[in-house]
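Readers outside the structure-tokenisation community will struggle with the description of the input data as it stands. I therefore recommend that a typical entry be quoted early in the introduction. An entry of this sort, consisting of the sequence and the corresponding backbone structure tokens, reads as follows:
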Amino acid sequence: MSAAGARERLVAELRAHALVIGRVTLTSGAEAEYYVDAKRAILRPAGFRALGELVAAEALARGATAVGGMTMGADPVACSALAAGADVRAFFVRKDRKAHGLQRWIEGPPLEPGERCLVVEDVVTTGGSTLAALERVREEGLEVVGVVSVLDRLAGGGEAIERAAGAPYVALTTIDDVHPERPDR
């Protein structure tokens, strides 16, 4: 499938399966009249395949050797790149350091200092989770070569991420693509 075709398929899957209309409280604490639960779409075969193609292409374009981000949001996104054949290792940033075992912040195959990381996220609103992941990745001595989100709610998070990342930020889709008739437009 072409990149344009994969993006169209991803948007269609998000519209069909991830868009929830109704009042919800977001991770940031803000309230909204709709919610995008991207996992409902990207953990289905068509959404996962489309996402994998797009993330694998971004990893290749950035010369990334590892793909990951803050656990839960990043987990299916990073794994989709592996499934699509990207020559990378996936990693997950913990919200809290594990108290037993290896007590690592970053889980997955060992990453070397200077490793070229593509940080990924499912949905960006304020960017808080992604900013925390960027900080942790850098503290571990890894290089951020880009940031990719499945969907940007266009609420300022993308701009905050771009400033903090020091690397390109790409939203594969935006709320304008998935819910163009939303009330807060």
